[in-house]
Design brief:
About 45% of the residues lie in helices and about 15% in strands. With about 325 residues, it is α/β, with parallel strands linked by helices. The protein has two domains: about 220 residues, Rossmann fold (3-Layer(aba) Sandwich); about 110 residues, Rossmann fold, CATH 3.40.50. A six-stranded mixed sheet has the order 1-2-10-7-8-9, sandwiched between helices. It has a four-stranded parallel sheet with strand order 5-4-3-6. The protein is globular and about 60 Å long.
Length: about 325
């Protein structure tokens, strides 16, 4: 599998491997025998995060294509936009991004601080659109405008979630396989927040390609269960096709739990607030309010309900996003004091 990945253009952006660490205090708090965290918040690019893995393949392809601009989209406090802007700066490319105003009643800090401030620091040109905008259409319209002006934009979908970007999480499975073997983890059960589908699709494809019996639990942060699972499954099939693997992927290998989304994408929930505070206070680890906070909330609920097998080595995949906390201080209120 590693040999196959070498066939794709790649631009190094991250620091590999990211750590795989025990969370003993949190495990005791939740009554779990074994709990670990894959620190993809430590990828090294612009405060880290899961998009670094995807962007290594996407930027590699952009440079091969002769692009001069990276073009993408996301919500206002998008971790993906922040890391894309940083990747563009490192690669000597321009960057423009469309930000969708999905959270409309938040204070000014949400709209101007955190990831937004970092986007601007990386000299990313931002275009803001109202919530409900068809973002892929807006992205293509902006790409056409830039082409008419003589630019050579490379369009990256939201979250970097296409087959090429998802190869980053096939590579993550290879990395995890080596780490689990060296640490004696025999029954990994992966848990993570799932949104734009690319991370989970890459994990599912990687596990399937290597013939590993590793359950993957995606905790949804946006779409209903059926929609999210179909999105992940369809993308995982494209990833396997890209890798030249034709062994059928059983539909039941894709699972997403939508019980922790709350009122909507990027909108705080009590479970998220509890999870972010708890992992900070017990493990000294920062989780974000949009993805990892809700992913942890789901994992907490699963642990308390006894849904994980007693002999499972539960691994929470931390996909980063801590800068978004500065845009969400209002969501924690006095409870954060």
């Amino acid at each position: 599998m590693a040999k196959i990945l070498e066939d794709f253009p790649r631009f190094r952006l991250g620091q590999w491997p990211t750590p795989l660490e025990p969370m003993n205090r949190l495990a005791r708090h939740l009554g779990m025998p074994r709990l670990f965290i894959k620190r993809d918040d430590c990828t090294g690019l612009a405060f880290g995060g899961n998009k670094t893995r995807k962007l290594e393949f996407l930027v590699g392809d952009a440079l091969k294509a002769g692009a001069d601009t990276l073009l993408t989209h996301g919500a206002v406090q998008s971790n993906h936009v922040r890391q894309t802007a940083a990747a563009a700066a490192h690669a000597g490319l321009r960057c423009e991004a469309i930000l969708e105003e999905r959270v409309t009643d938040a204070p000014s800090a949400y709209h101007d601080s955190g990831n937004v401030f970092l986007d601007q620091l990386f000299d990313c040109k931002l275009h803001r659109v109202p919530g409900g905008t068809v973002m892929d259409d807006a992205l293509e319209a902006l790409a056409a405008k830039l082409r008419s002006q003589g630019a050579k934009p490379y369009v990256i979908p939201g979250g970097g979630s296409n087959a090429l970007g998802s190869l980053g999480y096939v590579d993550c499975i290879l990395e995890l396989q080596r780490q689990c073997e060296s640490m004696g983890l025999r029954k990994p059960h992966l848990v993570h927040g799932t949104g734009s589908a690319g991370t989970q699709a890459g994990l599912v494809a990687g596990v399937h390609a290597l013939g590993l019996d590793w359950p993957i639990t995606g905790i949804g942060v946006r779409a209903p269960k059926a929609t999210q699972e179909q999105r992940v499954y369809d993308l995982a099939l494209k990833v396997l096709q890209t890798l030249g693997i034709d062994r059928p992927l059983p539909r039941e290998k894709v699972f997403a739990d939508d019980n922790y989304v709350g009122p909507g994408y990027g909108l705080p929930t009590p479970g998220m607030v509890e999870a972010v505070q708890t992992i900070a206070r017990l493990e000294g680890i920062l989780a974000d309010p949009v993805y990892t906070g809700k992913g942890l909330a789901g994992m907490f609920a699963w642990a308390r309900a006894g849904k994980f097998p007693a002999d499972a080595d539960v691994i929470f995949i931390h996909t980063g996003g801590a800068p978004g906390l500065f845009g969400y201080q209002w969501a924690f209120g006095k409870a954060a004091a």
